[in-house]
Amino acid sequence: MMTRGSAPLKVLVRPVLAFGFALLTLLAPVSLRIKTP
């Protein structure tokens, strides 16, 4: 059961982490611009 449950978890976590990382890289400069006009 562990192998059956861990496989889909990894498949779901990888794109979520990639999406979060992309969001961070895109929002970081925007937030810096807002803080320092």
TrEMBL record:
Organism: Xanthomonas oryzae pv. oryzicola (strain BLS256)
Protein name (Swiss-Prot/TrEMBL): Uncharacterized protein
